[in-house]
Amino acid sequence: MMLITGGARSGKSRLAERLAQRENGPVLYIATSRVTDPEMAARVAEHRQQRPGHWLTWEGYRDCDQAILNHRGQVSAVLLECVTTLITNLLFDLAGDTPAEQMDFAAIEQHIAQQIDRLLAACAAASCPVILVTNELGMGIVPENLLARQFRDIAGRVNQRLAAAATDVWLVVCGIPVHIKGHDPIGVA
Asked: Which residues are catalytic?
């Protein structure tokens, strides 16, 4: 499993797609976004057009492990874009309209951790490389509101777990991939 992290618009997706294309075969692209407004619809449409036509797309953020396991042996790589969006969607599914001050963040994080456990198990059982894209959120100022702070903390802990399990970890800064864990067997850096 490979993990690619970095800031917004840093070039993470471009690197992930380049790594997946090097596998020379069909790629399962797991898209975790939900279209909630016209801007998001435009972003999703842009991503769809950028992907090669022979790639398979699975859209969802719950039970991503099943998508990976159901395509085992059928694809040459899996690319999940993105873990941060997956966490966001799970958090809001669980919290609903509850005000942040009343949310049970421990229970929410436990549920998210269960999804991540299953995702990690599926990555380990996959018969091909799995590439996970996530955002590095902890490099800015401490958010002013409770929900943003809790989200940042949950995402940071998830990223640590994913990085610990990954064989390779990349940090993308200003479009430049920096290989921070593992070895670079394909010469991207």
From this structure: 47
Residue 11 lies in a domain: yes
CB crowding 84-109: b at 16 or more within 10 Å, else e: bbbbbbbbbebbeeeeeeebebeebb
**For 42-61, what is each residue's pLDDT tens digit?**
988 888 888 888 899 999 99
pLDDT in tens, 161-170: 999 999 999 9
Q: What is the CATH number of the domain that holds 23?
A: 3.40.50.300
Tally of domains within the chain: 1
Is 186 a member of any domain? Answer: no
Q: 0.90 cut: is pTM over it?
A: yes
CA distances, 20 to each of 51, 64, 70 (Å): 11, 18, 18
In a domain, 187, yes or no: no
- Res. 90 pLDDT band, cuts 50 70 90: very high
